[in-house]
Design a protein that fits this description.
8 strands; Rossmann fold; alpha/beta; 3-stranded antiparallel sheet; 179 residues; globular; 5-stranded parallel sheet
Length: 179
């Protein structure tokens, strides 16, 4: 079982063996819904949010490892893949709740990878975060149309990545509540 995160007075607090206060995201690039969702949680008291199982697919090993370090420090479990082919093979077994996909992957791009992952019944609840160095409004629109919950332009900050994964986790939670 993954550790849980607590929201107390708008601050995120991992419950479990580690007890330390974590600063909430300050600015979430291209993800304005996170502030609305966080304020709803803070207003309604203390809530438990499951930590996510995150798949990071990035052709740059250093960036992927850094993203993994940031997300693990927040209590998430992280699997890192360097290409789309490995992600396609292992994702049905890993069953991530959030996939952080670089749009310009070697071989198959992140948009096509997301489309293929969405077709897998094991990943029906997975939410997607786009990461790219080549951001323009047309690409951002294509990512939104493909169902990505967040769009992050490199270089990304720790706060933006953690906030986007939180946002994706909250989207999953809201959808489950509405079903």
């Amino acid at each position: 079982m993954h550790p849980r995160l607590l929201v107390v007075d708008g601050r995120w607090h991992p419950s479990g063996p580690r007890k330390k206060w974590v600063k909430p995201p300050v600015a979430i690039a291209e993800s304005p819904d996170i502030f609305r969702r966080m304020s709803k949680l803070a207003v309604s008291g203390v809530h438990h949010v499951e930590a996510a199982s995150v798949l990071v697919v990035n052709g740059d090993a250093d960036s992927a490892e850094l993203y993994g370090i940031w997300l693990r420090s927040e209590g998430h479990s992280v699997s890192i893949m360097g290409d789309a082919a490995r992600a396609l093979i292992l994702s049905p077994v890993l069953r991530p709740t959030v996939a952080v996909l670089d749009i310009w992957l070697p071989g198959l791009d992140g948009l096509a990878l997301a489309s293929l992952l969405r077709r897998m019944p094991q990943l029906a609840e997975c939410q997607y975060v786009a990461v790219t160095a080549y951001a323009d409004t047309q690409l951002q629109s294509r990512c939104r149309a493909a169902g990505f919950t967040s769009f992050l332009k490199k270089p990304i900050s720790r706060e933006a990545l953690v906030g986007s994964v939180l946002n994706a986790t909250l989207v999953t939670r809201e959808r489950a509540r509405n079903d």
